[in-house]
Amino acid sequence: MIQPAILLTPGPTPVPESIRQLMAEPIFHHRTPRYRKIFGDVSQRLKKVFLTQNPVYTFAGSGTLAMEAALVNFHSAGDKVLVVENGKFAERFTAIAKAFGLSPIGLKVPYGEAPAPRQIEEMLAKDKDIKAVCVQLCETSTAVLSDIKAIGEIVSRTEALLIVDAISGLGADRLETDLWKVDLVVSGSQKALMLPPGLAFLSVSPKAKARMATAKLPKFYYDLKHYEKSMADNDTPWTPALTLVLGLQKSLEMIETEGIDAVFKRCSENAQYTRETLQKMGLKLFSKAPSSTVTAACLPDGVDGEKLCKIMRDEKGVVVAGGQGEQMKGKIVRICHMGAIGREDLETGLKVLAETLKEMKSSSGSCCCSCQ
Ligand SMILES: *Cc1c(COP(=O)(O)O)cnc(C)c1O
Fold first, then answer.
1. Percent of the chain with pLDDT over 70
2. Is 1 domain-assigned?
3. I need a surface site. Which of 52, 134, 135, 230 has the fewest CB within 10 A?
4. If we measure between CA atoms, which residue out of 78, 49, 60 comes closest to residue 239?
5. Residue 87 above 90 pLDDT?
6. 164 CA to centre of ligand 1 in angstroms
7. How many angstroms is it from 139 CA to the middle of ligand 1?
8. CA quadruple 244, 3, 8, 257: dihedral, nearest 10
9. 205 and 90, same structural domain?
């Protein structure tokens, strides 16, 4: 095993040295002016990454916790929610909705494609009872970017709330929360925010806040009423993931220093470099609406994607992701360019991918892409 491995997976992503060092500081108590000052600061700085004036709540938990909080805090049993289903993470909204007795209506979109805003418009026009539209900014399993601006315009003209899962995309693909009229933005720490896993985030628009008052689903840990009250004192209702919040302050400072626009530009350039390099290797891109967060490529016929990832990880020290779920498992490879993943690591990773593919192909003798 080569150490340290180059991590090019869609979360967790590499954590910069300066952030890791900060998180190794001696622990201190959270009900103190010291912690409240830090938490107040990160809660304000988060808005600059979410591009919003809305409050951004921080939970101890993985991103899925904030997906659940975004559904449960704003709905009552039986409520209809429209879920764009174009990948594994999109389908998670449906699973959560079902678990809480909501009535999810799936808008099935082929893997690799983005939802057509017009289809969402038609469904909302047909059924005025739809209370929310759930969609991913970047659907990490397919590397597809959705047109949130267009969807936001449509949903804002209705009573429905727009819930965007930006767990991977926030800080890599541009998301203008306020300008694009997004009500609820969900994110997590371990992707473009360059932190270890363990923090989840949710921004809440005034339209969503008004809905909270009538939402009857039971909740406790992530009941936003507790968080709202504590936030007024720069505090959290329960013990925060203190160490991660220290790291978050540093990562947000780093993003601010580089400039959010520069961060988007860097991710977009690295994404373009990744796409071009993969195509030069003769691979087809899987996503018809490529994102700046992650890129997915189809593997040649006869190349087992799971084996490829395993060889790259165990023998060459480069960790990439394969496909998830029936249709994509073993057939695609996914490479990230968000957060602290730099050009050098991408170059090395892509070189190792080309090399490994060559070795595997010479033993199978195939040439065409198998997944499309
Ligand atoms: C990673 C990811 C999730 C899952 O987040 P967890 O932190 O594992 O709970 C959900 N949605 C998207 C788009 C993701 O990329």
1. 97
2. no
3. 230
4. 60
5. yes
6. 12
7. 9
8. 50
9. yes
